[in-house]
Design a protein that fits this description.
The complex is a heterodimer of chains A (599) and B (377).
Chain A (H helix, E strand, L loop, with lengths): L5 E8 L5 H11 L17 H6 L6 E8 L5 E8 L7 H8 L4 E7 L6 H12 L3 E7 L8 H12 L7 E2 L8 H11 L12 E10 L3 E10 L2 E2 L3 E4 L5 E3 L2 E5 L3 E4 L1 E2 L4 E5 L13 E4 L18 E7 L5 H14 L4 E7 L3 E8 L2 H15 L3 E3 L6 E5 L4 E4 L11 E16 L3 H10 L3 E7 L4 E9 H5 L2 H8 L5 E11 L2 E8 L2 E2 L5 E4 H18 L7 E7 L2 E8 L15 H16 L2 E3 L2 E3 L1 H7 L5
Parallel strand pairs in A: 1-3, 1-4, 4-5, 5-6
Antiparallel strand pairs in A: 2-3, 7-8, 7-16, 8-15, 9-14, 10-11, 10-16, 12-13, 12-15, 17-19, 17-20, 18-19, 21-22, 21-23, 23-25, 23-26, 24-25, 27-28, 27-29, 27-30, 30-31, 32-33
Chain B lengths: L1 E8 L1 E2 L11 E2 L2 H21 L5 E9 L7 H14 L1 E12 L6 H10 L3 E7 L3 H6 L6 H14 L3 E7 L6 H14 L3 E6 L7 H7 L8 H17 L3 E4 L2 E3 L6 H7 L4 E4 L4 E4 L2 E5 L3 H9 L5 E6 L2 H12 L6 E2 H8 L3 H4 L1 H9 L3 E4 L2 E4 L1 H4 L2 H8 L2
Parallel strand pairs in B: 1-4, 1-11, 2-3, 4-5, 5-6, 6-7, 7-8
Antiparallel strand pairs in B: 8-10, 9-10, 12-13, 13-14, 15-17, 16-17
Helix pairs in contact in B: 1-2, 1-10, 2-3, 6-8
The complex binds guanosine-5'-triphosphate, S-adenosylmethionine (SAM), iron/sulfur cluster and magnesium ion.
Chain lengths: 599, 377
């Protein structure tokens, strides 16, 4: 394929501004999918995406397009998610493109992720095509949004395309603009192969399948390739491009986006960001790859049935191929056995990983209370990073504890400034600056502890601004705070999986809520169960579960012993799913419900 | 080969709202056919067995066996006699309801071979009997008992506690009334709310008005204490007897011994296999008429199922379980496999160990279900 006729682009926007719907219209217009395969947001093909109405995974798909002049083009579209927790999907997609469609909802205007995703695109030197979508909405404020975009991008009014993904307005215009404005991919067929792995999937029969963008050279079946990072070599079984399914082709040439099947059975061999080159004629340098993503929240993931540790490990390895922002390493817990300390970009991400493990790999897990990472300076001057509160060194060894702070940007109509200020102050925030986005909307900047915005900040923000504010944040630095370790003790035994590092001022509230929740969830047992929350040796809250008083099966039904035994066996099975702390049995729901306790 | 024989009679005067036993309101026509089927089942079974079998106990349960005519009951018993070897000291029990026991009938029953009657009293309070939906009142109880006493020297009464509206006081009165009659045996059951019964639906709607857990616990303890003081030994969680009058038939169940059940829904345990007959009464009769198999399910117990039953049933008896026997017969060393559990339960005084026997303590009896759950593998 002549690379002059290739265009690679991503669709980026704030959440819900209509990226996936716009992608639908392109797929229709270019007849990429037959009408019977079309449905709304057809690229959101994961069940979880459809249930929640959001995009979680970036989806690449190739389209053939004959333009006004009669030239035939290959367009590679990547639909990206809008939610902050999936921003790594966006940045990796952009690395496979030369241009981006920046979509803005006409009724909402520029929001926080409009700006952050735009910056990601600019970092990658991409051509930007601004689009105002949803112009069909009665609340559309086209002129206002035009001005916001002119301001933001320094573009002329006629460069902004008005569209309605719902009604199919502006589709052809956008496609023509893509051809005109987005440069074809650079690179040369004659150079040694450099393929950037920007995503991958695992196939039970065919192993790890990397998705690549050919930056230099070309690739065909039978070639021998090498992964730069580990120098492992494989023979290519198949190459092809991406539709809703994988479509095999003869070869992939420079500038193209597609997949490689090379019987890679060891899933950890393919790393997102790695470069594939030719084994016989290798490139000297790999591509720059991707910046490592910093995990924002951490949680211990444990197999619901502790016997499934190995299966869970396998499932996580495979899932990680398709979710490069997931990190994990082994850990163990007194209550839950062997598991993994996992890093996520946010709580939604955590929840999605948990669900995908369950649905795609049949691995139900128990997650421990999520927390951020702490930087702890010890008395002897050593610095340690703590991702698991249970591992916090004893107080007498600790000089100081620092927690991550983030720079927060909140974009909102100016009338809500007062409410936002109040919320931010409650969350230990520090005000920095205000800028006007246009006459009615402001962009506020704050420093806040990450831990304060991870947990239900967004929902609160939405409710105090009647849904109008949007939020973005990036890690700034570590700062010292008055932090304490809150332990939960069950009949005197500390339960590591329930401990948390919290601000002293909130320890009492959190401890009390946690104890109350546990009291509701721990069933009565043969003995009294004392649930305590403590800071160091000081107990700050206590609840008790009174013991069972009477529990006797009165009659033993004639000879019908089968029924009784089966009942007992069923109860026993239920028990197996309980976790044992000392002699106390704690149901798994207790660990799950902790995630919902208000901080 | 020693056996227990169970005969199920699935007919009652009326259906009690708390009961989920396999029984329906009496239909005399159906009952007649049912008896025929029973006779056939007994004969067919004994004919199919190569070795002769000794019936150590015979138990007519229900339903309300005493609702049948004396002639029907003795015909069934005769068939058992002719199909199995029955020694003169065999325990032959009949479950009976007050109001189904005319003097002549009782006399005939005794003569035909029954030597033990278990009378379903449930309560001596007419208000409580009414709440339980019973077809009799307390006066009929006393009358039936007096008739029975003339012919039988082994009588048992069934009582229920934890009845809606019951107080510790009315329960004690019931116990004292029962004790005044001096039966040889007493079964004292905590009312169980069985799924699918009218009581279950009322309870779900919060309309049953059961005494609270603490109240029921006190009633249970009161029963244990009062009966003990009067010389009744608690030999099972719900059963009390004067020395030598423990129900031999029920003991067989708890000791894992063999028994054959005849009739609709009756269960058997024989040569390592448990099976159950079809529950439907009409179906049972129809299958019998077609000479078809009456069995609903059959399972050969696995090792772990045997262990579960050994513990589950054994701990119901106050003598507890024989750890050595468990080790030798079933190759399961409870003290090793459940070391921490057993240790802690003994330490906290829920279990007692004496020589090679492990049994529930008084405190343990009150929470036996939870303890058994902790001990099964
Ligand atoms: N009225 C109107 N609604 C639209 C238009 N485009 C999209 N929508 C609606 O906006 C909602 C979000 O659309 P999506 O296409 O899922 O948005 P998205 O940007 O892909 O969302 P994420 O992937 O979760 O970030 C859906 O209910 C769409 O039907 C439009 O042009 N007009
Ligand atoms: C199979 S019944 C037969 C006795 C007879 N039909 C009667 O009801 O008098 C045996 C005993 O089980 C007890 N029983 C029945 N249903 C019960 C329940 N739901 N909870 C507790 N005990 C129950 C009663 O005490 C009853 O006497
Ligand atoms: S009389 Fe006995 S078996 Fe019959 S319904 Fe009542 S409790 Fe059940
Ligand atoms: Mg989408």
């Amino acid at each position: 394929m002549d690379q002059r006729y290739i265009r690679n682009f991503s669709i980026i926007a704030h959440i819900d501004h209509g990226k996936s719907t716009l992608a639908d219209r392109f797929l229709e217009f270019t007849h990429t999918l037959p009408p019977r395969e079309m449905r709304e947001q057809v690229l959101d093909n994961m069940d979880l995406e459809r249930e929640r109405g959001i995009t979680i995974k970036a989806h690449a798909i190739r389209m053939d397009y004959k333009n006004e002049e009669g030239n035939e083009y290959i367009l590679n579209l990547i639909d990206t998610p809008g939610h902050v927790d999936f921003t790594y999907e966006v940045s990796r997609s952009l690395a496979a493109c030369e241009g981006a469609l920046l979509v803005v909802d006409a009724s909402q205007g520029v929001e926080a992720q409009t700006i952050s995703n735009l910056f990601l695109a600019l970092e990658n030197n991409l051509a930007i095509i601004p689009i105002i979508n949803k112009i069909d909405l009665p609340g559309a404020q086209i002129d206002l949004v035009k001005n916001q975009l002119k301001e933001l991008l320094g573009v002329e009014e006629q460069e902004i395309i008005l569209a309605s993904a719902k009604q199919g307005i502006g589709i052809e215009k956008i496609l023509e603009r893509i051809i005109q404005k987005i440069p074809p991919p650079s690179g040369a067929d004659t150079n040694p192969l450099k393929g950037l792995i920007f995503d991958s999937v695992f196939d039970q029969y065919r192993g790890a399948i990397p998705y690549i963008k050919i930056k230099d050279g070309s690739l065909k079946k039978g070639d021998r390739i090498k992964f730069f990072s580990n120098q492992k070599e494989y023979d290519v079984d198949e190459v092809g491009y991406l539709r809703l399914k994988l479509v095999p082709t003869e070869s992939l040439s420079v500038g193209e986006v597609g997949y490689v099947i090379a019987n890679v059975k060891n899933v950890t061999d393919t790393k997102v960001g790695d470069t594939i080159t030719s084994a016989n004629n290798p490139a000297t340098e790999p591509l720059p790859g991707f910046k490592d993503i910093k995990s924002m929240v951490f949680s211990g993931f444990y197999p619901a049935d502790s016997e499934n540790y190995a299966e869970l490990r396998d499932a996580m390895d495979k899932l990680k191929m398709n979710d490069a922002s997931l990190t994990f390493e082994p850990e163990s817990s007194n209550a839950l056995g062997f598991g993994f300390r996992c890093g996520f970009l946010g709580l939604l991400h955590l929840e999605i990983v948990q669900e995908r493990l369950r649905r795609e790999y049949g691995q139900p897990i128990i997650a421990t209370v999520p927390n951020v990472e702490y930087r702890v300076t010890l008395k002897d001057g050593k610095i340690v990073y703590i991702e698991n509160p249970a591992l916090l060194p004893p107080t007498d060894k600790v000089e100081k504890i620092e927690e991550p702070f983030v720079l927060v940007q909140i974009i909102s109509p100016s009338e809500y400034i007062g409410n936002i200020m109040k919320l931010v102050m409650e969350r230990r925030g520090v005000y920095k600056t205000t800028e006007y986005v246009d006459k009615t909307r402001v962009s506020l900047h704050f420093d806040l502890p990450l831990s304060e915005i991870i947990f239900d900040f967004y929902d609160k923000l939405k409710s105090i601004t009647r849904g109008y504010a949007s939020l973005d944040y990036e890690l700034e630095d570590f700062r010292e705070s008055d932090l304490v370790k809150l332990s939960i003790l069950i009949n005197g035994d500390p339960v590591d999986a329930l401990s948390a590092i919290v601000h002293r001022g909130k320890a009492y509230f959190w401890g009390r809520n946690l104890c109350q929740k546990l009291r509701e969830l721990i069933p009565r047992q043969l003995f009294e169960v004392a649930i305590q929350a403590a800071i160091g040796s000081k107990v700050i809250s206590r609840e008790t579960v009174s013991p069972l008083r009477k529990n006797v099966t009165a009659k033993c039904y004639g000879g019908d012993i089968t029924r009784k035994r089966k009942l007992l066996e069923r109860q026993k099975e239920g028990k197996k799913r309980m976790k044992q702390i000392g002699s106390v049995e704690i149901p798994q729901e207790a660990f799950l419900a902790i995630l919902q306790v208000e901080r | 080969m020693a056996l227990g024989i169970y005969i199920h009679i699935p007919f009652c005067l009326s259906k009690c709202p708390y009961c989920d036993f396999n029984s329906i309101v009496l239909d005399s026509g159906l009952a007649e056919e049912y008896v025929k089927s029973l006779l056939k089942e007994i004969q067919t079974f004994s004919e199919s067995q190569a070795v002769s079998m000794v019936a150590k106990t015979i138990y007519f349960g229900g339903g309300t066996p005493s609702i049948l005519k004396a002639s029907q009951l003795s015909e069934i018993l005769e068939t058992v006699f002719s199909s199995f070897e029955v020694k003169s000291d065999a325990e032959i029990s009949l479950e009976a309801n007050p109001g189904t026991l005319a003097k002549e009938k009782v006399k005939k029953l005794r003569k035909s071979g029954f030597n033990r009657v278990s009378l379903g009293v449930q309560s001596f309070g007419d208000k409580e009997l009414k709440i339980l939906g019973r077809a009799h009142n307390s006066k009929q109880v006393i009358k039936s008992y007096k008739i029975l006493r003339k012919y039988f020297n082994n009588l048992s009464l069934d009582l229920i506690f934890g009845i809606p509206g019951q107080s510790l006081k009315t329960w004690s009165e019931n116990l004292n009334m029962a004790l005044k009659l001096r039966p040889e045996h007493l079964s004292v059951y905590s009312l169980t709310i069985e799924e699918g019964t009218p009581f279950y639906y009322l309870w779900k709607q919060g309309k049953l008005g059961l005494p609270d857990e603490e109240g029921v616990r006190k009633m249970y303890l009161e029963g244990i204490n009062l009966l003990k003081a009067q010389g009744y030994r608690q030999y099972e969680l719900s059963n009390f007897a004067c020395k030598g009058f423990e129900c031999q038939h029920n003991l067989r169940y708890w000791q894992g011994k063999e028994y054959i059940g005849f009739g609709a829904g009756a269960h058997s345990y024989f040569q390592g296999v448990r099976w159950g007959n079809i529950r439907g009464i009409k179906e049972y009769v129809e299958l019998s008429e077609k000479n078809s198999l009456l069995i609903d399910f059959r399972e050969r117990l696995t090792q772990s199922q045997k262990i579960n039953e050994f513990i589950l049933l054994g701990l119901r008896m106050t003598e507890g379980i024989d750890l050595k026997k468990l080790k030798e017969d079933l190759n399961f060393d409870l003290e090793k496999f459940k070391k921490e559990e057993v240790g802690e339960l003994i330490k906290k005084k829920f279990l007692k160990k004496e020589k090679e026997r492990l049994r529930l303590s008084r405190k343990g009896i009150l929470v036996s279900d939870s303890i058994i759950q902790k001990l099964v593998p």
